UniProtKB/TrEMBL annotation, chains A, B, C, D:
It comes from the Bacteria. FMN binds at R125, S126, S127, N244, A245, G289, K304, P305, V306, A307, T308, R330. The gene is aroC. This is Chorismate synthase. The keyword Amino-acid biosynthesis applies. Its EC number is 4.2.3.5. Signal peptide: none annotated.
C-alpha cells in the first residue's frame, strides 16, 4: 500500500536506500520448481551495475546478490525468496553538500515534504539504485518465463534525437548477443557507435541526455491480461512508468496510432502456415482488449535526461531560501544503457504475474 | 484480482456488459461527509453518453444513474456507494452477424480464447460502455476533490494530425465552459472547428480516426504518490492505459523530454510572490520522484482509431476459417470527444486514492 | 480496504443498508463456465430470509435476487457477476425512536463516532441484512465447488446450553434434508425439538439467546491454503468472525485441544482401503500447517445473543446524556437458525478462493 | 497473495526457513517519525527465542536482529524497514531421519503435496521459527502504538487444564513485570508455579501439552476497525489463527457468550467520572459492529500441544508406505510461554494497521 510492492500473484517487495546497509527484494508467489540459475541472475545485475563503461557513472558496486530463502537444492520451493545486495561504495561525503538543499528535478523536495524526514545520502530510497532489486527479481521471473518458452528482449532505440532503425533478429539470444557488443546496448551497430559518441560528448559537457528503450516479448500465450483495469498493457505501462526517470510509455502503434484511420490501423486476422492465428499487421502490439493475442508484444519507454549534472544550479534550501547547488559527485550522462535490463525485468514481472493470474480464468 | 477493481483506499469495482441488464459500480472507501450532487454526476455522464452529437455513435442511451446505497440525507456515510445505470437500447440484433466471427482489432478473439465463452452482443464486457460506470464514480471523486480545492480539466488536444495550440485559461470552470461550446470538446475554438469538419468527413467515409486528450490537475497538495512502484504518474498511466483504445501515455515533458539535455530539462526551484515553492519550468509535470510537488500535473493520452468501421473486412471465424465481416451497426467516428470525461474521471479516482493514502505518511 | 470486500481471487464486494433501496454483491474472479442455477441461489436465500418461522424476526422480505451481469446463456463468463436484492419492508418508523440514542451492544455508537454520520434506520450498514448478499455470492461459490465434488454442510449444534450430539450422516444431501425438517436447523431431531421449545420461551420473555453452528467441508483436495498468514483456517476464522454476532471460532480440536497432550492429539497418518492417505483421528480438523490435508474440515462458530431485546434498557444519547431505549420492533430471539446458510456461504467463499489460489503453487 | 504478507497499510512480509541462511521481515507502510528503540525490539525477540529456560526447546539461537533499511538517525523515514535475523544453530542432521517420512500433525505431508518439493530441515518454512520475524515487526508496531498511548499485554492464562484466575493490574508495565518473574509467563504467581511443575512433568514424559494466551489492549481510540469483512476482531482472529499451533480464538464473552441471554449480555452505555463514554460490562470485548468502542479489547487464543514429541510414532513415508518416526531432536514441551510475545506482536500489527486505515473514515 505504501508502494514498495508490485504484482498480484508473482509479487515483489523491495527495500533499501542508496547508502544504507543493503538493498534487496522478497519475491512472494513464485511457483515451486523453478530452477534457480544464480549465474544468470548475477549476469542480469552486471548489465545494470554502475561503473561498467565510460558512459555510466563511476560509482563502484559489484552488486553481488545473495539468496537468503525460498530455494532448496537449486529449485524454488513456493516460499518467499529473499535476495539481498549489500551496498559497498557508500561514498556519502559526496552528498554532504546536499543535506539541506533541494536538487532540481530530484525527489528531495517531495520526500522532505511528504515524510518530514529524509535520508539525503544519494537520494536515499528515491535513488535508481533500488532498481537493482527489481533486476534480481526480474531475472528469476525470466527464468520462470523461459521454462514456458517466453522470451523478452529490449534495447536502446533512441538517445536524444538519434533513433535506431528497426532490427530484425527473430532469435532472442542473437538479438541480445548483438546488443551486448556495444556499451550503449543498441542492437543496431552503426547507430550504437553514433549514440556512444554523442553520449561521450554530453558527458564531457557535464551534461546528460534522455533516450528510449524498445522492448519485445515473444511466445506469449493467448489470454494473459485481465479485462477492464488490469489490462496487460496497463500493467506494463505502470511497471515502466515506475522506473526512475521514465516520462512516457506507448505500445503497438502508440502515439502515432492516434494519427491513423481505423481502416489502416485494424489488424486483420489470418492463419499462418502452421495454422496458428496471427494478424497481418501488429498495430495492436500483441494486446487486444487488454489481453495478449499471441502476436509479439511491443512497447517503447521514454526516459528523461538524468537530473544530476555537473553544472552549478540555482535552487532553494529547506527553509526556502535561495541557494546554489554545485555540480559534484558521480553521475550517468545517459541512463538508457543501464535501463535495458530494468525494462526487461519489469516486463518479466508483469508477464509472470499475468501468467499465474490467467490460471483462474476458466473453471 | 480479476481486474475489475481500481484504487486502493478509494476503490471502485465496475460490472456490466454492453447489452446486459445494467452496468454499474461500487465505490468502497469514500470518506463520510462528501455532499453528493446527483445533478453533477448525471451531467458528467451526459458528456460521455452516446448519441449526443453528429460525431458520436447514434446508439440512444439516457445513461440515467441511480444510487442504491452509501448515502444518507445527501451525504456519503463511509459505507459502499453502489450506482447503477440500466441499459436501454440493447439492439442486440445488430450484432447477430458477429456471433461467430472475430472483429479485427476488437477483443472478440482474446476473450473467446481466454474464457472459452463470450457474450458477443456489442462486445459484452469489453465494450467501452463500461466506462460510464467509471465516469459516475469519478464524478463522485471529483466532488470529494473539489471540497479540497483540487480541480481537474481535460480537453481534446489532437484529432488525427490536427493539433490544438496550448490554451491558457487558468480558471477550471472557464476552461470547461469554453471546451463545452463545441461538440469535439477542444478548448481552442478555431481548432475545434477544423477537427469537427475532419471527423465529419471521416464519418462519411465509414472510417474512424484517433486523437489525443490532454489533462491538467491543479491545486494538488505536495506529497501525493507513493515512492517506487505506486508513483503518482505510474498510477495515472495505468488508469489512462486501462481506458478502451488508449495506446500511449506521457506526462510532463513526455516523449519529447527524452530528446532533451538535463541542463535544459531540470526544473529550477524558486518561490512565488506568496512564498509558495514553485519551479521555473514544469517539465516534471508536477511530479518528482513519483510524488506531487505542488505544480500543475500535466499529461497526455493517445487513443487509437475506433476499430468498428463501416467497411467490409477480412477475418476468421471461431473455427479459424476465413470469413468476411460487413460494416453495419452504429459507431463512433472518433472516440476522443466522449473520452474527455473518462480521462477526467480516471484522473480523479487516482488523485482521490492518493489523497487518502497520503494520510498515513507521517506518525 | 474499507472492508467491504472478501477474498483474493474469488472476491466479493457487498453493498447496501438495511432500509435503503437494495443490497447486493459483485463477485469478481468467478471462473467462466460455472452453470448458474438461480433456483438454488434463491433457495439458499430463502433459508436466511426473515419471517420464515415463529422463531425468527417477523420482518417480511422475499429477498428475491436478480443477476445483472456476468452470465450468458446460463453460464458464468469470467466477468463480474452483480446480484441485487431489493429491500421491500422498510418499516423505518420502527426505528424513529432510536435516531438519537445508542442501542446497547449494537454498532450505533461506534459508527457514529467513526463516521460522524449514521444511517440509523435498522442499523444501516451494520445490520445483519448485509449477510443476504453474502449468501447469494456463497451460493454461487457452492455451485462452483459442487462441480469439483466439494460439499459444505452446517447445522445448529448448540442453543444456549443445549448441545446436540454428533450427527453421523456422511451424505451431504441427506444431512441437509434432515436438518431442514425442523425450523431450528439442527440435524439431530430430538435436540431440535428441545432447542425450539427453549427459543420460543426466550422469545416470549422478549429476550434472546446465543448458540453455535458447526460446519463440515468434505472432499477438499489436499493443498488448499497458503502458508504463514493466509492459512486455510485463518481465512475461515476471519470469514466466520466477520459474521454479525460471532464471538468465537475454533477448528479441529479447538479450545479443548489446548487441554490435551501431544501424544493423544497427534493425528497418525495411514492409508484407507482405496489407498488414499488419511489420518486415524482428525484433531487437526482437516488442516495441517494451514493447508488442507484431505480429511474433512471441521469448525465451530459461537454466536452471542442478539442485542435487540423487547425490554427497556438504560443507555446514553448522542450528546452523552442518560436515556432509555424502549423494547419495540421486530427481532430474532436466536440468530443461529438463520445463520446456518451464512456460515456455509462464507465457508464456500473461502474454499473457492483457495481453490483458485492453489493453482499457482507449482510451475 | 501467496500468504506471506499481513496487514493493509501497516504491512509486513516475512521470509525464511528454519534452517536456511536467515529469516526476516519487511515492514512497508510504517509512518515516518517513529523512534526506533532497537533494544526494545531485541528484548521482545529475547522473550520468544529458544533455549531461554528449562521448559523451552534447547535449540540455541541468539536471534539477533539487524535493521537494513528504512531508518535514518534513529527514526523511521516512511520507506520499507527490512529486518534480518541470521540462523545460527542449524543442526540439520537432527532432521535427516525425517527426510522421507511425514511427521504426524506437522505440515510435512501438506507441503510436499502442495508444492511437490519440500525443505525438510526443521519444517522449513512451516517452522514456528518464522514467528521471530513477526515479533521483530510487532515490536516496531508496539513502539508506534506506545507513541499514541496504546498498550498491549498478554500472558499465559491456561496450561492444559490449569487456568489462571483473572489478574487485576491496570498498569501495563506492572503487568508485564509480574508476568516476567516466572518462566511460564503467567501474571498470577501461584498459578505460574503450578503450570511450570506440570510442564516439567510433561517434558520428562517426552510429551507436550497445549495452553491458552489471554491478551488485553488498552487505550484504543474509538473507531478502529472496518465494517463488514475487516471487523477489528475478525482481523485479530485471523492474526491469531495464523500463529503456528493455534486452534481457537474468542473475544469478549467468546464461546461462553453463546450460552447467555441478551438481557444479561448487553453492555449498557454510561459515562465515567471524567465524562468518557464507557460500558458497564464488557462482554463486547471492546468491539461493537467490528469497531473499537474505547473499552479494553480482550481476547483469548487456544494453542494445541506441540506435535513434536519424544515418542516413536507410526506414520507413512513419501511413497505412502508405513513407517515409524523416532522421537529425537529438541522440542518445546509447551509452546505458550514463548507464544506470549507472538500474540502481542500480532495484536500490535492489527491495531497499527487499523489505526492507519481509520484515517480515511471522514472527509
Amino acid at each position: 500500500m505504501a508502494g514498495n510492492s508490485f504484482g498480484q500473484l508473482f509479487r515483489i517487495t523491495t527495500f533499501g536506500e542508496s547508502h544504507g546497509e543493503a538493498i534487496g527484494v522478497i519475491i512472494d508467489g513464485c511457483p515451486s520448481g523453478v530452477e534457480v540459475d544464480l549465474d544468470y541472475i548475477q549476469g542480469e545485475l552486471d548489465k545494470r551495475k554502475p561503473g561498467q563503461s565510460k558512459i555510466t557513472t563511476q560509482r563502484k558496486e559489484s552488486d553481488t546478490v545473495k539468496i537468503l530463502s525460498g530455494t532448496f537444492e537449486g529449485k524454488t520451493t513456493g516460499t518467499p525468496i529473499a535476495m539481498i545486495i549489500p551496498n559497498e561504495d557508500q561514498r556519502s561525503k559526496d552528498y554532504s553538500h546536499n543535506v539541506d538543499v533541494f536538487r532540481p528535478s530530484h525527489a528531495d523536495y517531495t520526500y522532505a515534504t511528504k515524510y518530514g524526514i529524509r535520508d539525503h545520502r544519494g537520494g536515499g530510497r528515491s535513488s535508481a539504485r533500488e532498481t537493482a532489486a527489481r533486476v534480481a527479481a526480474g531475472a528469476l521471473a525470466k527464468l520462470l518465463l523461459k521454462s514456458q518458452g517466453i522470451e523478452i528482449v529490449a534495447h536502446v532505440s533512441s538517445v536524444g534525437k538519434i533513433d535506431a532503425p528497426n532490427v530484425f533478429i527473430d532469435n532472442a539470444d542473437e538479438f541480445i548477443a548483438q546488443r551486448e557488443q556495444n556499451i550503449v546496448r543498441c542492437a543496431d551497430p552503426a547507430t550504437a557507435e553514433e549514440m556512444i559518441a554523442f553520449i561521450d560528448g554530453v558527458r564531457k559537457d557535464g551534461d546528460t541526455v534522455g533516450g528510449k528503450v524498445s522492448c519485445y516479448i515473444k511466445n506469449v500465450p493467448v489470454g494473459l491480461g485481465e479485462p477492464v483495469f488490469d489490462k496487460l498493457h496497463a500493467d506494463l505501462g505502470k511497471a515502466m512508468l515506475s522506473i526512475n526517470a521514465v516520462h512516457g510509455f506507448e505500445f503497438g502503434s502508440g502515439f502515432s496510432g492516434s494519427e491513423m484511420r481505423g481502416s489502416e490501423h485494424n489488424d486483420i486476422f489470418m492463419k499462418d502456415a502452421e495454422g496458428k492465428v496471427i494478424t497481418r499487421t501488429n498495430f495492436s502490439g500483441g494486446i487486444q482488449g487488454g489481453i495478449s493475442n499471441g502476436m509479439p508484444i511491443e512497447f517503447k519507454v521514454a526516459f528523461k535526461p538524468v537530473a544530476t549534472i555537473m553544472h552549478n544550479q540555482q535552487t532553494i534550501d529547506g527553509e526556502g531560501n535561495a541557494a546554489e547547488i554545485s555540480g559534484k559527485g558521480r553521475h550517468d550522462p545517459c541512463v538508457v544503457p543501464r535501463a535495458v535490463p530494468i525494462v526487461e525485468a519489469m516486463a518479466a514481472l508483469v508477464i509472470a504475474d499475468h501468467l499465474l493470474r490467467n490460471r483462474s480464468a476458466k473453471i
